[in-house]
Design a protein that fits this description.
50 residues; mainly alpha; two-stranded antiparallel sheet; 1 helix; 34% helix; 8% strand; flat
């Protein structure tokens, strides 16, 4: 099960915008299976940069 942590600045997003972020990230995770990343870089193959 993937874990996604999205941080929004204090002036940030309203409730509806946060809901759209959640929907979009969930859709992305569903559409692109078996792809993991840390810090914006893919780590699908441990120890190998893509």
């Amino acid at each position: 099960m993937p874990y996604v942590n999205i941080r929004i600045t204090k002036e940030g997003a309203v409730k509806e915008e946060k809901a759209e972020l959640i929907k979009g990230v969930t859709r992305l995770l569903k559409d692109v299976p078996d792809n993991r990343g840390v810090g914006g870089e893919s780590v699908t193959v441990p120890g190998k940069k893509e």
